[in-house]
From TrEMBL:
Its main location: cytoplasm. SMART domains: PH, RhoGEF. Residues 67-163 form the DH domain. It comes from the Eukaryota. Keywords: Cytoplasm, Guanine-nucleotide releasing factor. CDD domains: PH_Collybistin_ASEF (cd01224). The keyword Cytoplasm applies. The gene is ARHGEF9. This is Cdc42 guanine nucleotide exchange factor 9. The lineage of its organism: Eukaryota, Metazoa, Chordata, Craniata, Vertebrata.
Length: 339
């Protein structure tokens, strides 16, 4: 992979650079980040020791987190191709890329072919390691390293696929938001990218203390509250949101609650760690309460993993989702995707 990335890097630094750079350089930045990690990572020297049989531990060192650069690259591949397509409509960039190709004495191949190479190769690593493990004796000194390296790369590719699935799902989230009446505040996609769980519960919020029936949509970072229309039960009205980054989930036993002075069954609380505000929820069944508690744990885990690997939705992806929603005709009586 390094030679392909070197080409991209040299295109950036070549003397043909006097062509004005495009406004959006995020795709180029992903290429350079990937090149820098591969070429200048602390484990690079270990890979150069071809005489040593013990080169698999580099998969297991702390720098393995660098493999998440592949995830960022793969999920931005479509944006990169779209940006390239725009540039190739300008004759100046056509001449620039062709000059770079001739300067590097490269074969006549489309640039999007080079952009695709990292995507193809990251998918091959688990297959190659699995094949190597198959023909490595279990008593060989390399066996445990190969097995561990295979586990790491399978996890990386699994996470790449998961992120791809989430990015493909943002159109549905934007479409759902557009269907909710009286929406207020920021868009869901400004902070969230996944609907984790949804359901209807009774809800009491201090200082009002009045029991209300609401439909709750738990996304990463936030939970949206909606009210069903009295006649058209498939129509939702926006009634607020809860910032999950500021709240702690508290499981409570059945009995009487001192904060709200009410009897509780299948209940739990959300407690604001900064303002001491409390939300009290009542599930209809114990199984439903357990499912909600599990969903809250999943939400926190997702947020932590996203922070670790730097997952975010680009502004271009948000715009594309908004454009898709505008193109979709509204259909009466159509079943909602979240039901």
């Amino acid at each position: 992979l390094a030679p392909d990335l070197q080409i991209c890097r040299k295109m950036k630094t070549s003397r043909c650079r006097k062509v004005r750079e495009p406004q959006s350089n995020s795709a180029q930045r992903r290429v350079l980040d990937l090149y820098s990690w591969q070429r200048h990572g602390p484990w690079w020297q270990e890979l150069q020791k071809v005489h040593s049989a013990f080169f698999f531990p580099f998969f297991l060192c702390p720098q393995q987190d660098g493999f998440w650069i592949y995830s960022e690259y793969c999920n931005n591949h479509l944006d990169a191709c779209m940006e390239l397509s725009k540039l190739m409509k300008d004759s100046r960039y056509q001449h620039f890329f062709e000059a770079c190709r001739l300067l590097q004495q490269m074969i006549d191949i489309a640039i999007d072919g080079f952009l695709l190479t990292p995507v193809q190769k990251i998918c091959k690593y688990p297959l190659q390691l699995a094949e190597l493990l198959k023909y490595t004796a279990q008593d060989h000194s390399d066996y445990r390293y190969v097995a561990a390296a295979l586990a790491v790369m399978r996890n990386v590719t699994q996470q790449i696929n998961e992120r791809k699935r989430r990015l493909e799902n943002i159109d549905k989230i934007a479409q759902w938001q557009a269907s909710v009446l009286d929406w207020e505040g920021e868009d869901i996609l400004d902070r969230s990218s996944e609907l984790i769980y949804t359901g209807e519960m009774a809800w009491i919020y201090q200082p009002y203390g009045r029991n209300q029936q609401r439909v709750f949509f738990l996304f990463d970072h936030q939970m949206v509250l909606c009210k069903k229309d009295l006649i058209r039960r498939d129509i939702l009205y926006y009634k607020g949101r809860i910032d999950m980054d500021k709240y702690q989930v508290v499981d409570i036993e059945d009995g009487r609650d001192d904060d709200f002075n009410v009897s509780m069954k299948n209940a739990f609380k959300l407690h604001n760690k900064e303002t001491e505000e409390i939300h009290l929820f009542f599930a209809k069944k114990l199984e439903e309460k357990i499912r909600w508690l599990r969903a809250f744990r999943e939400e926190r885990k997702m947020v932590q993993e996203d922070e670790k690997i730097g997952f975010e939705i680009s502004e271009n992806q948000k715009r594309q989702a908004a454009m898709t929603v505008r193109k979709v005709p509204k259909q009466k009586g159509k079943k909602r995707w979240w039901l």
